[in-house]
Structures are given as structure tokens and as C-alpha cells.
Amino acid sequence: MGRRYYLHPYGRWNIPLFVCMDGFIFAQNCGMDLQDHMKESLVITSFKKALANRKPQEKMVIHSDRGGQYASKKFRKLIDKRRLTQSMSDADNPYDNAHMESYFSRFKAELMEGGAFDNAEDSRTEIFEFIEMYYNPKRLHSSLGYLSPNNFELNQTAA
Predict the structure, then answer these.
(1) Is the pTM of this model over 0.85?
(2) Fewest beta carbons within 10 Å, which of 3, 38, 54, 113?
(3) Distance set, CA 16 to CA 136, 137, 142 (Å)
(4) Where are the bilayer-spanning segments (predicted)?
């Protein structure tokens, strides 16, 4: 699953954050990129990170919102090359991408509760630490039997 989200790091402008998540392991962030532009390279970079981390099987469905970056020729070519299937949310329907909406709801509540970041580098550092040192390895999810996403995945692969 993929989605873009706009950060307001020092209250002055938007910085787009793109996140790819594993839809089976409902809360695990697999790839992320944070830049100062909205070009398709943001989606492609985060998606390539997710591919390297997850190594999806052919025919896996890649679901996203309807952003132009996800509809770009380069992104679609990358999906086709991997023999994956693309799915997009209906226009103006956040429920089609409910896992990502839930993720960003928690993201805002837990990471950004203290307000905006001081600068772009602080935002990158804090987001990385939130995802890699807290959210994936430690944050418990009722939908995962009160396990963290990493522990849930370990239990699934061990079974």
C-alpha cells in the first residue's frame, strides 16, 4: 500500500512523505522517502525500498491513492517489470486505503503531538527513528494480537 502525506516541518511549507506498507502485516512500514518535491521519484524511491525489504511475489497487488505519481509511466513500468498488479482507491474515498489512513492518523498523534519539526533534517531523523526504532519493532497493535509489526511477522514466518 502506498500513500503520500504532507508534513509541515516548520510551519512554512509542505514536505511530502511517501510510505509503502505491507498490507498483510497491517502496520509494517516497508519503504519511505521524504523530499522537498512531489516528483514521481519520491514514490519510486520508497517503492524500491519496499521491494528490497519485502521481495513481493508476482501478481501481488500494489494499492495506492490516485496521485499522479502512482499513475506515472515510470512507476507503472516498475510495477509491470515486477509482474505486480496495480490497484487505486476510488476518487475521494479514503476508506479504500483505510490501513494507510489509520497509519497516518497514529503517525500524527504519536510523532507530531509536540508540533512541527524545527528543520528538514530533524524531520528526517525523527521520522526514521519513529518508524524503525518504535513503530515497527515496539508499537503494539490490537489487530495483531497485541504484537508489534516485527514480532507479528516473526510469528507468521515461524508458523
Answers:
(1) no
(2) 113
(3) 21, 24, 29
(4) none
Give the cell for residue 125.
531523523
Report how far residue 6's alpha carbon sits from residue 34's, in angstroms, rounded to the nearest whole number: 10
* Structural domains of the chain, count: 1
Cell of 86: 496495480
**Residue 13 confidence (pLDDT) above 70:** no
Residue that has been written with the C-alpha cell 531523523 in this structure: 125
Considering the chain, what is the average pLDDT of its residues? 76
Tens of pLDDT along 92-110? 766 666 777 777 788 778 8
Residue 7, all three cell numbers = 508534513
Interhelix angle for 73-81 vs 40-54, to 10°? 20
- Nearest CA to 2 among 59, 68, 57, 58? 68
Structural domain of 7: 2-158
How far apart are the C-alpha atoms of 111 and 121, rounded to whole Å?
15
* CA gap 102, 109 in Å, rounded: 11
Q: What is the CATH number of the domain that holds 6?
A: 3.30.420.10
Which residues on neighbouring strands pair with residue 61, listed in sequence order? 85
